[in-house]
Amino acid sequence: MIESEIREFAKENFVPIVRPKTKELLIEKIKEINPKNILEIGTAIGYSGILMLLNSNANLITLEKNENMAELAIQNFEKENLLNRVNLVLGDAKNYIENTKEKFDFIFLDGPKGQYLNYLPYLLKILNKNGLLFCDNVLFEGLVRSDIIAPKKHRTIVNSLRKFLSVIENDNTLNVEVLDLEDGVALIEHK
After folding, report:
1. Rounded CA Rg of the chain
2. Which contacts (CB < 8 Å, 24+ apart) does range 128-131 have?
3. First to last CA, the chain
């Protein structure tokens, strides 16, 4: 895998990619679920998509709104000979998830943090009964479950993520596990 190359590019260009311990958990859950189809919200440069594909036989639909990121991701999928298993959709994730007829065994949510709550009802509708919704960055730099007042530039995201966690943790139709791992991960399944 071109992992070191992607990690280096991400670091130099300030592209957020999945962190090391979260990466290990993602791989573990992919192997455990053994999905046939994966939905990823937030492709960036393709790093997490590559990880999921290399550790499964699944096909991936990945959603990215930034054209430059999408082009870099396609190049990275190509370098790994994975492009035949990828459908990269350029555009607004909400539009896709509201309208798709597809169902998914595994959904990796790593898009705009302020939209997690808005995406949730649509994601739960398209998540298969025994599927897993893996949400990254739900504790957002430790600010979400902290008494510290978030810096003004992060306040909207932090408040949105607090509402998101409250909704999922109080929904008795879901099994939810929130892990204080790096930037926080929520694992969500239908009961």
Report:
1. 16
2. 128/103, 128/104, 129/190, 130/33, 130/105, 130/189, 130/190, 131/33, 131/35, 131/103, 131/104, 131/105, 131/106, 131/107, 131/189, 131/190
3. 36
**Degrees to nearest 5, angle at CA 43 with 181 and 138:** 30
What the block records as the tokens of 55 is 């550790």
Q: In this predicted structure, what is the pLDDT of residue 1?
A: 57
Q: What are phi and psi of 110, to 5 degrees?
A: -145, 35
Q: Is the pLDDT of residue 99 over 70?
A: yes
Cα–Cα distance, 167 to 145 (Å, whole number)? 14
Burial of residue 113, with CB atoms counted within 10 A of its CB: 0-12 exposed, 13-18 middle, 19 or more buried: buried
How confident is the prediction for the chain on average, in pLDDT?
Answer: 92
Range list of H helices, the chain: 3-13, 20-33, 47-54, 67-79, 93-99, 116-126, 155-169
- Tens of pLDDT, residue by residue over 165-187, are 999 999 999 999 999 999 899 99
pTM for the model stands at 0.93
Strand 59-64 to strand 86-90: parallel, antiparallel, or no bridges (unpaired)?
Answer: parallel
Determine the Cα angle at 28 with ends 24 and 31, to 5°.
Answer: 140
**Which pLDDT belongs to residue 14?**
83
| Domain over 3-190 is classified CATH 3.40.50.150 | yes
